[in-house]
Structure formats: C-alpha cells, structure tokens
Amino acid sequence: MATYTKDPGAPSAAYLDFWRERHLCTLTTPRPDGSPHVVPVGVTYDPEAGLARVIASKTSRKVVNVLAAGSEGARVAVCQVDGRRWATLEGRAVVRSEPERVAEAERRYAERYERTPSPNPSRVVIEIDLTRAMGNI
C-alpha cells in the first residue's frame, strides 16, 4: 500500500479501481457555525471531469450546508474506508438541480452501486470540483 496526495485528475490505477468498488462513503460539509457535519453517502468519482458526485434530496442537511456557503460553494471532503485501505477526495461543492446533471449523477450512482436510485422529485446533485486526492491503497 502507498499513501499519497495527488492531482485528483490523474489517479493511479489502484486508486481509481478502489473508487470503482462498491463502498459506503462519508461526506463532510461545514455547518454554518463551522463545525463538521459528517454523513454516510454514495459517491461517484469522475477524474476526467475532475468531479465527485453525491445525489441527495434538496432539503437534506448536507445540501442546506453547501447552499449556505454561497455561490462559491463549500469546502468538503468525501472518504471511503476498507480495512487499512482508504481514499479521500477534497474540493469545493455546489448544488446542481439541472435535470441532465441529476440524471448523469443517478446513472453513475447506478453503475457504481449496482442499483437504480429510487425516484425522488426533490433530488439534486452535490458536485464537488476536486482539488486533492489522498489515500492509502
């Protein structure tokens, strides 16, 4: 295993393979008071676009936290762990509601987690513009 910090747009094969495996992840967002809010989520990683995506209901606390950060977005992290292997992606998150963006996030979620998300007319996608990739793979 190798611990590293890298450009999230150029992951190693092992790092990318780990993000293709089915793992529950966490998303950490800042609350308005600055304290961290950590919740379990499904995450997809798209190094070509430099994005990680999380589907969510527009009324969820994680979405409210990202929106509260303003138009520049919130600094967030997503992480997954499997024994001693772990990977974290960091970046700036914004909330998108455009149907094509939500559909793309749902498609990627279904591919990674091998199940179609249940219908949700209030669904949005948290898109994280990635700035850092770290891990022990």
What does this structure look like?
With 137 residues, this protein is of the alpha+beta class. The protein has a single domain (3-136), classed as Pnp Oxidase, Chain A. It has three helices and eight strands; from the N terminus they run βαββββαββαβ. Strand 4 and strand 5 form a beta hairpin. The longest helix is centred in the C-terminal third of the chain and has 15 residues, at 99-113. It is globular. The termini are close together. The model has no long low-confidence stretch (mean pLDDT 95).
Oligomer: single chain
Number of separate strands: 8
Discrete helix count: 3
Write down the CATH class: Mainly Beta
What is the general shape?
globular
Just name the CATH architecture: Roll
- Percentage of residues in strands: 35-45%
Q: Going by CATH, what is the homologous superfamily? A: Electron Transport, Fmn-binding Protein, Chain A
Radius of gyration: 14 Å
Average pLDDT confidence is 95
Helix content: 10-25%
In the predicted model, the low-confidence regions spanning at least 5 consecutive residues are none
Count the domains: 1
Major sheet summary line: 8 strands, antiparallel
Protein topology:
Blueprint: E1 3-6, H1 13-20, E2 25-30, E3 36-41, E4 44-46, E5 51-57, H2 61-68, E6 74-82, E7 85-96, H3 99-113, E8 123-136
Antiparallel strand pairs: 1-8, 2-3, 2-6, 4-5, 5-8, 6-7, 7-8
